[in-house]
Each structure stands twice: as C-alpha cells, then as structure tokens.
Amino acid sequence: MNNKNENIENNIKNNNNKFEIKQANYILNNNLHNKEDKRIFIENITKLINDAYEWGESDMWHFELYKRTNMEEVSNMINEDIIIVAFIESNSIDYSKPVGSVKCNTKFNEKLKEAELGMLSVSITKQGLGNLLISACETKATNDGCVILRLELLTPKNWIHPVKKWLEIWYTSDKLRFVKGEKEDFDSLYPQFDSKIKKCKFDFTVYRKKLI
Predict the structure, then answer these.
(1) How far apart, in whole angstroms, are the C-alpha atoms of residue 115 and residue 152?
(2) What is the pLDDT of residue 9?
(3) pTM
(4) Interatomic CA distance for residues 58 and 19, integer angstroms
(5) Is residue 207 within 8 Å of 154, Cβ to Cβ?
(6) 148-156, strands of its sheet edge to edge
(7) What is the number of alpha carbons within 13 Å of residue 29 lying toward its C-beta?
(8) What is the per-residue pLDDT for 133?
(9) In angstroms, rounded to a whole number, what is the distance separating the alpha carbons of residues 66 and 54?
C-alpha cells in the first residue's frame, strides 16, 4: 500500500474504531486471493450502490428498467483506483462484503485541482459511516493535490424528494460544509437517457467544498 492510502486508513481508524476503510483496488489485489472472491467483491459493491440508489431515488426512476451501475463499470472504477470501501472491523473481516463505498475521482478536473465525490452508498445507517467515507474522500483528494471536492445531487425538477432534501441539509451542514452551487438541467446534459426509464424531469445541483 502506498503512503496516500495508508493515510486514508489511519485517519479513519483514529476517528472511529468500528470501521476499516481502504481503497477497493488494494483490497482486490491484496486481501482477496481467488477469482471467485474477487467476483463476489465486485458484485457486492455493485449491489450496494444500486440498492442505495433505489432507496435514495425512489419514485424518480423505473428501476425495473434501470440500474445505476453494473459490474463492468464498478470493475473499471476499481482498476482506476477511484473506489473507497468500508468494512465492519472484526478479528476476521470478510473482505468480499463491504458495508459502504464511495467514488473519489481526484482526476476529475486536474486544471482546477477539483476532485469528484459520488455514488456514496452504505448498508449501515446512523453510525456515522457516510461521514467517514466523505472524510476518506477529503483525505485522498488532499493527498493527491486537489483543493476542491465536488459532488452532484440529482433532484426532481418539479417536486421535493424527502431523501434528496435530507441530503442537501446534510451536505451543507456545519459538519460537512459543502456550498451549494450551480443548477444544471439533467436532460440537456444527458440526452441519452430514455424518457421511458424516468418518472419525472431532473435537475443536477453542484456542491463544492474547499479542502485547503
């Protein structure tokens, strides 16, 4: 493990002893030793993300026709080293079964030194795991030379989704300190999404946080 990833893990452990957080690429190449365990690991991250989106974007998509991600995309993101995963700490961790994950792309906008946070997904709630994963993103982004961490929140254009409203309050709270920025029309940005899979029209709102 390189020093950057060691720093991520150590910072999280110092804050909370319940979870172990590491780069997914490191887990895949160092803790999982056979092909089937690696496949299950990728499958479980994919399920974790899709389950989180089905809950967090209920009544926004026809989920019988649409999934947020797939194993091929997750595998590619792991190989690009932009997925961070969390496990419940124990004496015998099953590294094929993460309980949380997040995408942290520190090459999102290299000119502006802006990193992207996305796909935040947890299977355990009310234990601070989401905060810890965001903290891991901040650490990785800072270590990789980024000065801004950004995320995008997809919301219905013409009605208020309770989960999305809660996320907006959380992101802009005194703890996380993201600042609400520009709003963009989803259909203009992503015209390739068939209207048959959407239950409503969407907006994208960008939130940013200065890291230094």
Answers:
(1) 12
(2) 53
(3) 0.91
(4) 28
(5) no
(6) 19-23, 83-88, 100-109, 114-122, 148-156, 202-210, 179-185
(7) 11
(8) 97
(9) 10
Angle between helices 35-56 and 71-79 (to 10 degrees): 110
**What is each CA distance from 157 to 52, 75, 161, 202, 205, in whole angstroms?**
21, 32, 10, 5, 11
Which of the following CATH numbers is that of domain 3-151: 3.30.420.40, 3.40.630.30, 1.25.40.10, 3.40.50.1100? 3.40.630.30
Q: What is the per-residue pLDDT for 1?
A: 36
Looking from the CA of 86 toward its CB, the CA atoms found within 13 Å total 31
Block means of pLDDT (10 residues each) for the chain, 212 residues, are: 46 59 97 97 98 96 96 98 96 94 98 98 86 97 98 97 97 97 92 92 96 88
Residue 86 in contact with residue 98, Cβ under 8 Å? yes
CA 69 to centroid of chain Cα atoms: 12
Backbone conformation region of residue 59, classed left if phi is above 0, alpha if psi is from -120 to 50, else beta: left
Q: What per-residue confidence (pLDDT) applies to 3?
A: 43
